[in-house]
Amino acid sequence: MSRGIRGRGCDTGHRQIPAYLSITVQVAGMLVRCSVPFCYSCPEGGSERLHKTANIPTLPLVGVFVCLSTAVLWEQTAQQALPGRQLWAESESKLGENRKPQTVSIVQRQDADSSERVLMDMRWGLVPSWFKQDNPSKLQFNTSNCRSDTMLSKSSYKGALLKGKRCVVLADGFYEWQQQSGGKQPYFIYFPQTKDTMDKETQGDEEWKGWRLLTMAGIFDCWEPPGGGEMLYTYTIITVDASKDVSFIHHRMPAILDGDEAIRKWLDFAEVPTQEAVKLIQPTENIVFHPVSTFVNNIRNNAPECVAPVELGVKKVGTGGGLAGGSSAMVMSLSQVRAARLQEEWQ
DNA sequence: CCAGACGTTGTT
DNA sequence: GTCTGG
DNA sequence: CCAGACGTTGTT
DNA sequence: GTCTGG
Q: What does the entry give for GO biological process (predicted)?
């Protein structure tokens, strides 16, 4: 599947890769540790709207979320873009220890009383805990995705899975490229958005519910550099056969967890054993999509045009890119999208 | 047993 | 063609 | 995933 | 660390 999950951009229209500040918030009576998206291009840093957009989970659960919607996708990209910055808001010292409730970590807890979800950023591309070399970029095989049918028999994933290192990857959506004669047509694929949510988005402020983020099933692992240094958290996105509606685009898709119950079970490594959890990994039909410009193909392009619908067979019209508008422009583009059954028009 | 891989998608 | 960087 | 490189010696 | 191929 795609690499294609991008930052939302902040209030002022920046679309640079954001980083996070770690905070603990109370949601539905539970303490949830999360990372607040933080825009390095803004003098003040924080972005109220980005934070709301992160749509912090409301269920009191055990587990790890990876927030990709606004997350760092490529460590090296981020390191180059943000030299000298602290990228990993959740440090080893916080995650490795059990402390007071506010700082209790979910990771590797066996007991069932652990009741937090942690929202953190991880590096995409799972580095197995046994990896021996000193630099994770030396990993000579691709671990961005993990086939659901073989994940329990692969050395790179089996260990993490059996240890309960299951996570949920949050994103606005993902991209797939349809192979055609004469090129590749990218599509943006995402959860259907309710009218309720869209209306409230346009009102903004207190009523904000935001985009319904896609929730994908992932596996993570922790890796310690042999020469010492900070623990690195990495993850892979599980893939399944494409569901019927999107199979004309591509024959594979990420495993999507549709709804709080599926998410709850996937994250609850203490109560839901591996064998039960893997049953959650199925293709879903509850998904919509629209074609987008090949503008998205170039990684350096990060603007509303990446998600704006295009009409196929029509020559691209210059829009002036993402000079203004930021996240608002993006959501407004998506607002124009009819939510379902668009396949006939584009097929 | 040791040595060497450890992965996916897509394409053929 | 295949690997790396983003 | 796509885009772009794919190399060395020696010089600055 | 663990599995596969020889």
A: protein-DNA covalent cross-linking repair; proteolysis
